[in-house]
TrEMBL record, chain B:
SUPFAM superfamilies: Ferritin-like. GO terms for biological process: phenylacetate catabolic process. It comes from Enterovirga aerilata. This is Phenylacetate-CoA oxygenase subunit PaaC. Gene3D superfamilies: 1.20.1260.10. One of its GO terms (cellular component) is cytosol.
Length: 221, 277
């Protein structure tokens, strides 16, 4: 949108329903649902791969199995943003071991994100490498994923990788308000949006006016 | 057993067409299944229409935008079809519902099946639909049905983004050049009679509305009208007078366009029954 972007109109002038604050909405992104209002915390940090004291066990107990599964799954990365693990991203919602079986729970970032299938496959492979074959991968929609679940470590890794991390507070105000996005290369806040949709569902394309570099912005969601 | 894929792509074995046909022409077996199916059909058909722009959009960034919006909608459709298939409990699944139903078994709005037309009409349609979908999913987050509420919480954020993006384009086109204004106004006039169907509720819907499961579309009319009139005014476009509205998609009476769309979308499964990746 090089031409239209330069001459494009920004959202500041849009009528109020589009800038934010639908009157009937209360309680932020959680709406009126109690369980939505208190999303689980990001499932990090995970225990280290070697908990110790398990080598002699013929049949690993639930704790050690869970620890092994956690360690294996926490290594899995987003196929599109390989510096982020699925735990950094907030996609990994839980790992449980019950009766010798492992259940991994994940939640999609965007409804149609095609990377989800790949992540599920990578989880299965990581578990197989750790010797765990009896596992189920469950996808849940509730509570809905938000960029607020991205860990601080994840934000730092994103910035180092050249992608501007999402604004910390998600919700309608951030979605429609005037966003300040710092350039991940030079740190300048003198930046502009080139395109609202980028190379993946979760990114938009921005440009830094100071260093002139274009960069991906991980959209606040 | 390890489940490799949370959304496995499975089709009936080849030669089982008859059983499938019987399955997928059954329109519904409960008000809730029909409700989920109708919303799934809306999202799938509009998502497919937007995917038709792939390789044809006026600029690369907008090509990515339309494809991304389409992807969101198809993702929403999958969640809704999965739910509808579970409720039907008739052996259908998301793929059978999408690929093995003929036009009369589809329950989408007429608005979403119309051909894309030019870029202005494409954008105006996303705008009219999103201006409804955004408050619709917001309200649905409070549904007594947990599954619908969960799907709504995901969809709402996506619809809000679609609304913002399309609204910006409506303003840019309407308040742009003479040609873009003319095309945008023609799109508004063409699409307007198809916007009324979004606010319909039949006896099946009203049963769910009374139970706190479905959203009463009438309660969204003011929010929709305000968004539309504000944006059209900003875009210097004239809002048509209220008048006669098209109807029929919700009960399976479609325009000729849906059959052509399905012929393309369903080609692979119809030509090679049971094909998998």
């Amino acid at each position: 949108m090089s031409g239209a972007g330069a001459g494009g109109r920004d959202v500041g002038h849009l009528p109020s329903p589009l800038r934010g604050g639908w009157p009937e909405r209360s309680g932020g992104s959680g709406g009126g649902r109690d369980s939505v209002a208190s999303p689980p915390t990001t499932p990090t940090p995970f225990p280290s791969p070697k908990g110790g004291g398990e080598s002699g066990a013929a049949t690993p107990g639930p704790d050690t199995l869970k620890q092994r599964a956690l360690a294996a799954v926490s290594e899995v990365c987003d196929p599109e943003i390989p510096v982020l693990t699925i735990a950094d991203l907030g996609v990994l919602r839980g790992v449980e071991a019950v009766d010798g079986r492992v259940e991994v729970t994940i939640t999609p970032t965007y409804s149609g994100c095609p990377a989800m299938n790949m992540m599920a496959l990578e989880i299965e492979l990581a578990l197989a490498r750790a010797g765990i074959s009896d596992a189920t991968i469950r996808t849940v929609l509730h509570p809905a994923w938000t960029t607020d679940w991205m860990s601080e470590e994840g934000r730092r890794k994103l910035r180092d990788y050249g992608i501007a991390p999402p604004s910390p507070a998600s919700g309608r105000r951030a979605l429609f308000g005037r966003e300040v996005v710092a350039c991940p290369r030079c740190g300048s806040e003198d930046t502009e949006r080139l395109a609202e949709f980028g190379s993946t569902s979760c990114k938009a394309l921005w440009r830094c006016r100071s260093c002139r570099e274009p960069f991906d912005y991980f959209k606040c969601h | 057993m390890v489940q490799v894929d949370p959304f496995p792509v499975r089709f009936a074995p080849a030669g089982d067409d008859k059983a499938d046909a019987a399955t997928v022409t059954t329109p519904t077996n409960s008000p809730l299944a029909l409700y989920a199916l109708r919303r799934a059909d809306d999202a799938l058909i509009l998502g497919h229409r937007l995917s038709e722009w792939c390789g044809h959009a006026p600029m690369l960034e907008e090509e990515m935008a339309l494809a991304n919006i389409g992807l969101d909608l198809i993702g929403q459709a999958r969640s809704l079809y999965q739910y509808a298939a579970e409720l039907r409990a008739d052996g259908s699944d998301e793929d059978k519902l999408a690929y093995l139903r003929d036009a009369p078994a589809y329950r989408n709005l007429l608005l979403v099946e119309l051909p894309n037309g030019d870029f202005a009409r494409t954008i105006l349609r996303v705008f009219f639909y999103s201006a409804f979908a955004d408050p619709f999913w917001q309200a649905m987050m409070r549904s007594a049905d947990e599954r619908l509420a969960a799907i709504a919480a995901k969809s709402e954020k996506e619809s809000a983004y679609h609304l913002r993006h399309s609204a910006e384009w409506v303003i840019r086109l309407g308040d742009g050049t003479e040609e873009s204004h003319r095309r945008a106004q023609e799109a508004v006039d063409y699409l307007w009679p198809y916007t009324g169907e979004m606010f319909e509720a039949d006896a099946s819907d009203r049963e769910l509305i009374a139970a706190g499961i479905a959203v009463d579309p009438e309660s969204l009319r003011d929010a929709w009208a305000k968004t539309v009139s504000d944006v059209l005014a900003e875009a210097t476009l004239v809002q048509p007078a209220a008048g006669w509205m098209q109807s029929g998609g919700r009960s399976g009476r479609h325009s000729e366009h849906l059959g052509h769309l399905l012929a393309e979308m369903q080609f692979l499964q119809r030509a090679y029954p049971g094909a998998t990746w």
